[in-house]
Write a structure and sequence with these properties.
Strand content: 15-25%
Number of strands: 10
Number of helices: 13
Shape: rod-shaped
Structural class: alpha+beta
Length: about 400
C-alpha cells in the first residue's frame, strides 16, 4: 500500500494501524507532527493520502488543496445527558454552540478534541507559550545583567567596607595605645557619670583596677570626706557638658591622700553627650616643692627681721657713744640712726637741711660739701659716718670741689 500521512502518536493513527493489521494490509506511514502537516504533505505530493480527525478536516479542508473522502476510521461519538423532560432548551443551546465551534479553526472544541480524544495535537504548544518564553528569556537576561551590576557594586562596597574597617581598627589601636600609655591617669565615664574603663596609670596612681571601677561613680571611689562639696560642684558642671580643670586632693585605695591636677573633657556625638574623660596628674612633688619654698620664704623673712633689729641696735649704740663724747651735737645722732637704717627701707635721701664747707677731716687742699638732713658736716657724727663710709651708700649724695 502506498504511503499514508498521519500524526505521530494520534489515536486515529493507532486505530488505523490496528485495523490494517487485522485485515493483513501493509502500508508505509509518513509520520508528521500535526494535522496541518498532514495536509501540507498531501499538497506537496509526499503522500497520496492522509489521515486526520473528522472535525479538523471539516473545519480546515478549504484552506488546502485536498479532497475529502467518505472513509471514516474509528468514529467517536460525544453525547450530553440531561434529565428526561427537562433542560431541553439547555441541550439546544449546547448543540448550537458546539456546531459553531466545529466550524472555527482554533476553537476550544477542536483543541479539546485534538488533545483528549484524537491525540494528534497533544504535543502542540499554545500560541502564548512562545511569546511568553521570549518574554521570560528577556526578563532573565535583564535579571542576570542587574545581578551582575549588583554583584559588581556589592564587591566594590565590600572592599570599601574592608578598607574602612581596617582604618577603624588602626584608629582604634592608636587610641587604645594612647589611652593605655598616657602619662596621665585617665578614666572614661558614660553619659550617666559611671566609670566605663580606666588605664594603667590610673591603677598605678590610685590602686583601683578596671573591674573595681566599672559601673561606679568616681566621687564614691576617690573623693575624701572633706572634699565632697567641691566634688559635687564639679560633677554638676561636668553633667552640663562643661570642661573642668582644677587642683585638688584625692584618696587612693589604701587611704593615702594624693595631690592631683584634674581635668574633665566631655565627649559629644551627633546625638549629644556620650561620655567624658577625666585626667589626673600627680602633683605631689610640685606641692612639696611649693611648701618647702614657702617655708624657706618664712625663714628668710624672719632672718631679715632679725638683721634689721640688729642693725638698729648697733646704730643706737653708736649714737649713744657719740652723744656721750660730744654733747654739742646731742640729738643729731638720733637722726643719724634714722639715716643709717634708711638704706634697708629706701634709697632716696635727698632732702638737705645743712650745706656747709670746711677743711675739718678733709684732705689738704680740698673741701667737701655734704647734704644730709639735719646733720652738720663739721660734727663728730659726720666724721664718724665718713670713717665708716656710710656716705658712699646709695642712700647718700655728696659733692666735692675746690675750697
Amino acid at each position: 500500500m502506498a504511503g499514508v500521512a498521519m500524526v505521530r502518536g494520534d489515536t486515529y493513527a493507532r486505530s488505523f494501524r490496528d485495523l490494517a493489521g487485522r485485515f493483513g494490509i501493509g502500508f508505509e506511514a509518513l509520520e508528521v507532527d500535526d494535522y496541518p502537516d498532514v495536509f501540507r504533505a498531501l499538497e506537496s505530493g509526499k503522500a497520496p493520502v492522509g489521515l486526520v480527525s473528522r472535525s479538523y478536516g471539516q473545519a480546515n479542508q478549504g484552506r488546502f488543496h485536498v479532497t475529502r473522502t467518505p472513509i471514516v476510521i474509528s468514529p467517536v461519538e460525544l453525547r450530553f445527558a440531561a434529565p428526561l423532560g427537562r433542560s431541553a432548551v439547555l441541550l439546544q443551546v449546547l448543540d448550537f454552540h458546539l456546531g459553531q465551534m466545529k466550524t472555527l479553526e482554533d476553537s476550544e472544541w477542536l483543541r479539546s478534541m485534538s488533545k483528549w480524544i484524537e491525540g494528534g495535537a497533544a504535543d502542540r504548544l499554545p500560541g502564548w507559550v512562545v511569546p511568553a518564553a521570549w518574554g521570560a528569556g528577556l526578563l532573565l537576561l535583564v535579571f542576570l545583567f542587574a545581578a551582575f551590576l549588583f554583584r559588581k557594586k556589592a564587591v566594590r562596597l565590600a572592599r570599601q567596607l574592608l578598607k574602612s574597617r581596617e582604618a577603624l581598627r588602626v584608629q582604634k589601636d592608636t587610641l587604645e595605645n594612647l589611652f593605655q600609655n598616657s602619662p596621665e591617669a585617665i578614666a572614661f565615664l558614660d553619659a550617666e557619670g559611671m566609670v566605663v574603663r580606666v588605664n594603667r596609670p590610673f591603677f598605678e596612681l590610685f590602686g583601683f583596677t578596671g573591674e573595681e571601677c566599672r559601673g561606679r561613680h568616681l566621687d564614691d571611689l576617690l573623693v575624701p570626706a572633706d572634699r565632697k562639696e567641691e566634688a559635687s560642684r564639679i560633677t554638676d558642671r561636668a553633667r552640663r557638658g562643661l570642661p573642668t580643670s582644677f587642683e585638688t586632693v584625692r584618696t587612693a585605695k589604701d587611704g593615702k591622700r594624693i595631690d592631683v591636677q584634674a581635668q574633665g573633657v566631655p565627649v559629644f556625638s551627633e546625638g549629644g553627650k556620650i561620655g567624658e574623660y577625666f585626667l589626673y596628674r600627680d602633683i605631689r612633688d610640685r606641692k612639696a616643692a611649693e611648701r618647702a619654698l614657702l617655708a624657706n620664704r618664712e625663714d628668710l623673712k624672719r632672718s631679715l627681721q632679725r638683721m634689721d633689729r640688729a642693725w638698729k641696735q648697733t646704730v643706737e649704740v653708736l649714737s649713744s657713744t657719740a652723744e656721750a663724747r660730744d654733747p654739742y651735737t646731742a640729738g643729731h645722732q638720733r637722726k643719724v640712726a634714722q639715716l643709717a637704717g634708711a638704706p634697708s627701707s629706701t634709697r632716696t635721701l635727698w632732702t638737705p637741711a645743712f650745706s656747709c664747707s670746711g677743711k675739718s677731716g678733709s684732705p689738704s687742699g680740698s673741701s667737701r660739701r655734704s647734704e644730709v638732713p639735719g646733720l652738720c658736716p663739721c660734727s663728730p657724727v659726720h666724721r664718724l659716718c665718713e670713717k665708716w663710709n656710710l656716705f658712699d651708700s646709695p642712700g647718700f649724695s655728696y659733692e666735692t670741689g675746690r675750697a
